[in-house]
């Protein structure tokens, strides 16, 4: 173990889930690399990034899994829920159908998660497209309260809310020691794949 690893409190597995086109990969890219790619291709299966983060003096390493939203990749995903301490559920505030589908994503998370008290963060993305909004902030907050989730609205394009979303999620996980104490370090060799077939497909509403 390196000296830098000695200061790491723990490694946390975080999932980003939600419908295709809501901006999951853009949120991840903004958080990990502080970049925004308007032409980012759809994810095949699962993308994976590692990011260190310090919250309240606690330094952790995040292993973040960005899951594909397309139905044709659903059979690839269940195994990736195993061991996750946190999940970010994303919908597009400009697409009401992506908001309606959240119940299905929560049911899937509850079905395949191996940790009963996994911390959930609801993120309403694309608030930079206010003129196209279909889901109000109050609706998002009400839904989050219904499922005892954290809640924030964000924009991968402008950075607003992105860093805070991850920090608040990690803060809550750290405050729940049963989720991460005695956990072994997560090691992953997942390949980062992008769906070039879908990269030029038009997306509903504004970009991620």
Automatic annotation (TrEMBL):
Gene3D superfamilies: P-loop containing nucleotide triphosphate hydrolases
Catalytic activity, as annotated: GTP + H2O = GDP + phosphate + H(+)
CDD domains on file: Rab18
Enzyme class: hydrolase
Pfam annotation, one family: Ras
GO term, biological process aspect, one: protein transport
Alphabetical keyword list: GTP-binding, Hydrolase, Lipoprotein, Nucleotide-binding, Prenylation, Protein transport, Transport
Keyword RNA-binding recorded: no
EC number: 3.6.5.2
Record GO terms (molecular function): G protein activity; GTP binding
Source domain of life: Eukaryota
InterPro entries: P-loop_NTPase, Rab, Sigma_54_int_dom_ATP-bd_1, Small_GTP-bd, Small_GTPase
Keyword Cell membrane belongs to the record: no
Chain coiled-coil ranges: none
UniProt similarity note: Belongs to the small GTPase superfamily. Rab family.
PANTHER family, sorted: RAS-RELATED PROTEIN RAB
UniProt protein name: small monomeric GTPase
Organism: Rotaria socialis
